[in-house]
Amino acid sequence: MAPPAVLSIAGSDSGGGAGIQADLKAFAYAGVHGMTAITALTAQNTVGVTGIHPVPAAFIVEQVRAVHEDIGVDAVKIGMLGTAATVRAVSRALDLLPPTTPIVIDPVMVSESGAVLLDDEARQAIVTELLPRATVITPNLPEARVLAGSHQSEPASWAHTGDASDDVADLATTLHALGPAHVVITGGHRDEIVDVFYDGIEIHTLTGERFPDGAAHGSGCTHSSTLAAHLALGATPLEAAQAARSAASRAVQHGLRDIGKGAGPVDVLNVAVRALTARQLGATDPKGHLSARDIMRP
Ligand SMILES: Nc1ncnc2c1ncn2[C@@H]1O[C@H](COP(=O)(O)OP(=O)(O)OP(=O)(O)O)[C@@H](O)[C@H]1O
Ligand SMILES: Cc1ncc(CO)c(N)n1
Known about the structure:
Blueprint: E1 5-13, H1 19-30, E2 33-44, E3 49-54, H2 57-70, E4 75-78, H3 84-94, E5 103-105, H4 120-130, E6 136-137, H5 141-147, H6 168-176, E7 182-185, E8 194-198, E9 203-207, H7 219-232, H8 237-253, H9 268-281, H10 292-296
Parallel strand pairs: 1-2, 1-4, 4-5, 5-6, 6-7
Antiparallel strand pairs: 2-3, 7-8, 8-9
Enzyme class: transferase
Domain Pyridoxamine kinase/Phosphomethylpyrimidine kinase: 13-267
GO biological process, one term: thiamine biosynthetic process
């Protein structure tokens, strides 16, 4: 039987750490077929973003139409949007899909390296046009504060610092009132790594080990894509959020610290390949960097 087909509507990261490049790896790790509708090209590496080239609105819709008409879309993950025109195009594109299609929105605002990936008008458009359509939204703590209206986006202050005074559960409730069916506030920006899940009734805290942040570029993209994949596979939103937390956390644990001069990319696939290799061949490469081809060899 064919695996579910999951669509990422997101930006491209030329450095291969975040954006659609991370999303496709997360889809492969989850065992679903990944598809993409690219919203913007970024010229990006581990240190910064040197250029952003938005895709014309009509062409964003065209990409979604193409995959919907032939392949079908079992769940959607939405990442970097950039401009209000793109937000509106994505909203139009979602109108093409059956209304029951699970939609996961990661309201990407700032890259790990500090670059602004969403302008002010687009932020407002996300709140009015997209949040009410979401099955799950997955902001990190600074994004949650901005969406809740309590903070302006101030990239320089978005360091990974803990903020004990912030009541994350209250924030989740405030965001839920904006229309999404479920809210996950991810924990990467706090001292303790706890994802907070809210379904409109109960708060659940998803705990786990914190690994050093050295190679966490793409953790949020890996998280939201895994979540969408598991919804497509039939998991409940809470189960999907747990699977997403676990995949993102392992991807940070095995992140590639030696790639680039900044925060290295997370690595969700290599984890899977190593695990398979160890199980199937009873051995791993001393460096642990095996390709899928290596494990397919007779
Ligand atoms: N250092 C870490 N150790 C373990 N898990 C982590 C770590 N950092 C992030 N995570 C997990 O990764 C997922 C994404 O969280 P995070 O808050 O980092 O997203 P983000 O800030 O949107 O990511 P990005 O940096 O890609 O924009 C969450 O499930 C979170 O718990
Ligand atoms: C294209 C893209 N999407 C998302 C992020 C957030 O990590 C990024 N840095 N780049």
